[in-house]
Amino acid sequence: MGIISRGFQGRRRDAGDRLPPGQYLVDDFPVLSAGPTPRVPLDRWEFTVDTEAGQTHRWSWAEFLALPQQTPTVDIHCVTKWTKLDTSWQGVSLDVLLEDVETAADYALVYSYGGYTTNLPLEDLLDGQAWIVHGFDGEELEPRHGGPARLIVPHLYFWKSAKWVRGIRLLNEDYPGFWETAGYNNYGDPWREQRYEGD
Question: pLDDT tens-digit profile of 23-45?
Answer without folding.
Answer: 999 998 888 777 788 999 999 99
